[in-house]
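Q: Could you predict the 3D structure of Histidinol-phosphate aminotransferase?
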Amino acid sequence: MPDQNIPHPIPVPSVEAIDFPALPLMPEAGGRPSGDLARLNLNEAPMSPSPLALAAAQEALADSHRYPDHHAGALAGTIAARTGITADRIVFGNGSGELLVQCAQVALDRGDEAVMPDPTFPTCGKGVQMTGAHIVKVPLRPDGANDVAAMLSAITPRTRLLYLCTPNNPTGNLLGEAELERAIREVPATCLLVIDEAYFEFAGGGGEPDTLTLLRSRTGPWVVTRTFSKAYCMAGLRVGYALCSDEGLKRGFSRIRHNFNVSRPSLAAARAAFEDEAYMRAAVAETVARREQLRAGLERLGFAVLPSFANFLTVRFNGSAAALAQALHGQGIAVQALGWPDANGSLRITIGAAEENERVLAAIENQLEAA
Ligand SMILES: *Cc1c(COP(=O)(O)O)cnc(C)c1O
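A: Sure. Here are the predicted structure tokens for Histidinol-phosphate aminotransferase:
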């Protein structure tokens, strides 16, 4: 019997102390997303997955009485063929968010430190807190990119993880080749370099750095995480992957990974989606074209729009972003308000369908006129 006199609150204090933003409540009547709400707050794709992915998922569904292939051999082989990273260095997660938590678990002990940009995608930081390590937050550059020089200066002998997010969520800007190269060279070999490339597919084509090629010169451990949730339009299927510097690191992930963590239909859909590169490229091109239209519209309304290499725009104006987000919510448009970079904050607006873009522009214009 446990001694009832020793207080042991449940949840335990270390769990209560985890500082993690709550996800918005978006009720789905009948279990389907409502068509009335413009969901421009989660960086989802407005278009459905590739028809080939849907067909593959449908076919796999029939075998659902069998556990999925834990090693995801077929999908790993497909990804290995294109990335040049062999299957014994690829790990799969229920979304790349799961892998970002595992990055912290693989690299950190209680009392260690993890250097992260601020603001950034919160999930790796959640993993850091779960290990009892400390987050060292380094402010972003004013243009919304990670500040590599400042992050390198924040490294101490206790630093065991450095997280880069490029393009950074929630700001959209990416790291140039020189900065990425510097991080790869100067982050100590005693430290896991995590590079979150959730928007990798949106950034292609403009002379952006090739992370995997640059990483060939790194002596220390590294992980690059990517996802099927954004460019592949499969957020609801939950598949992400991590490319690892070496097999030993992958074995570390394998120890903490839950068995059969990615479902059979999801694995099948991901493989088909990855092979249907034309569909993904078309979805990205459409999103980028609409992003630039929205940028022009918002600039016309006097907004300052940050550089974006992703499927969202982060914008500022001379007023409270939180109040504007609230007003838009009242009109059935969900956007994300950020407490960055100053008291006015900024808005992160996902690039939705063409009519959603028009709707959000018109609603913002109305609000500014009413104000
Ligand atoms: C969306 C996103 C992810 C992961 O999403 P999953 O759906 O869990 O794969 C990871 N990092 C960033 C920066 C993101 O924006």
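Q: Anything worth pointing out?
A: The longest helix spans residues 277-300.
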